[in-house]
Model the fold of this input.
Amino acid sequence: MTGSDGQADGGDAGGVLALGKRARIRLLLIDPLEALGFRRKTGTTVAEHQAAMDSLADNLAYLSDTGLRALCEMLRTKGEGTARNIWPAPATVYALAELIERRPLEELPGCLRWFRSVEGPRAMAAGTLVETWSYFHRMKRPPVHIARDLAQRAADNRRQLQIIDERATAGVATAEELAWARGYRDRLAYCERLVRGGDEQENGAAA
Done:
């Protein structure tokens, strides 16, 4: 069954909230690793290192507290340099973070623009909107040359919804089945809002 992924938090309410997010990342990730001995790369100034840490914090703000703690544990052995105590490259940190919790599509403007382009309405018309979104959310790239696979997944999910609805009508659907159906329909409504929101923005810009 296709699972439903969580939605992103609301928008940033200004610098205070941004600083609060950075403080959370520092408390749960940066400070513990620096306490272990992680330090800035040789040749990097204090200001450059601080800017890099701020950027790291901003990019990891989507992680939950549990996710940040898990990332901290994973990074303990990922230090660079001969002493293995230099902060690893951001690409390494972000890749591990994605393994723990996938970055919301809403935080990837390029991906979101693609989804809100002709491709979103095309997927909606084909009945593969949720499946297309799930692929994009998981892989962070357009679903190229897998239209048949997406169509099959969508057909399977529609059939699953039909079966659950019939079981619900008969009063024999399980709590897990009902939760899956509700999650799928919530995700569909969410994806439709994404696509229509893109259409509204484009129309507004053209007016």
